[in-house]
Amino acid sequence: MFYYILRRLGQMVVMLLLISATTFAIFFAVPIDPARYTCGKNCTPTILEGNRKSLGYDQPVPVQYAKFVQGLATGRDFPDNAELRAAHPEQVVHCPAPCLGYSPLQSRTINEMVSEAWPVSISIALGAFVLWMLVGVSGGIIAALNRGKWPDRLVVGLGLIGYSLPTFFIGLILLTFVAIQWGVVPVPSFKPFLPNPFDWAINLILPWITLACIFAASYMRLTRAYMIETMSEDFIRTARAKGAGKWRVILRHGLRASLTPIVTAAGLDLGGLLGGAIITESVFSMHGLGFLAVNSVTTMDLPTIVAMVLIVATFVVMANLVVDILYGFIDPRVKVGA
């Protein structure tokens, strides 16, 4: 297992380098001067030339990428030009490792923007993940155990409704009625987890529900299908014949055997969400990684776009690694280290 994890970590690093190189080449190797997007409408040729030198855009693309990778490992100073740093030392901005770059439009390092945004996205994603897993898996089990009966039809119907409603619609309904009109919970805003975890949770409950609805509906259907298939297997009948209790058969044998595809889907979904729940953050005006990604695209903030692609890719690749490791604990038949 240890050598398998090391091998996968090495593969993860190679994959992230390939993703970053591809993204970097797409945005900075195209025949469009990236310096054009570093200032507003009042840009002059002098300002563009200065921005081009300070950000290193006057250098070959391979050199720019090498400095980007070096910044990830050891940090980086801006302006990128050594002469400009020597002439104006008071304007030097240090970006510690892993340095994701510098945004000329925001006049800040991307690390600073990400450090402000990631607690919001992490809080929303993890809370919604716990909620949809609890509701989705338990609902799927109930439906599978009552196949063809009214609980099954109720769960399938609720799942269909949740899967059909758009995320922004659910969020707007909850925000308008539950928070604003009825005042059941405060209007969502991000509060730090400490020193008051309850205040943190109550301010995020509506984003959690909004984001969890469509995923919970999907996991209800997924769990139901695999539980029905698993509960008809020979090893389930053997466990019952040996006198195992009902819930021991359901949870220890049936659910465990059904968890492999559920864990696969959960890992990929969570990895994508950690990169930013764009619609949910937009509905509730929360400035997380999703908001940062959308803002970088609308303003053509190329360094931030490259950084966001790398962040999302990192979360997805790490989620795949965790899923592969969990396989060995969920199903001993899976040879993880092979």
TrEMBL record:
Name this polypeptide is given: ABC transporter permease
Top-rank taxon, per record: Bacteria
Keywords: Cell membrane, Membrane, Transmembrane, Transmembrane helix, Transport
Major localisation: membrane
GO CC terms: plasma membrane
Topology relative to the membrane: Multi-pass membrane protein
Record-annotated membrane-spanning stretches: 12-32, 117-142, 154-180, 200-222, 262-284, 304-330
Organism phylogeny: Bacteria, Bacillati, Actinomycetota, Actinomycetes, Propionibacteriales
Compartments reported by the entry: Cell membrane
Membrane in keyword set: yes
Keyword Transport: yes
Domain ABC transmembrane type-1: 118-327
Family: Belongs to the binding-protein-dependent transport system permease family.
Record-linked Pfam families: BPD_transp_1, BPD_transp_1_N
Biological processes per GO annotation: transmembrane transport
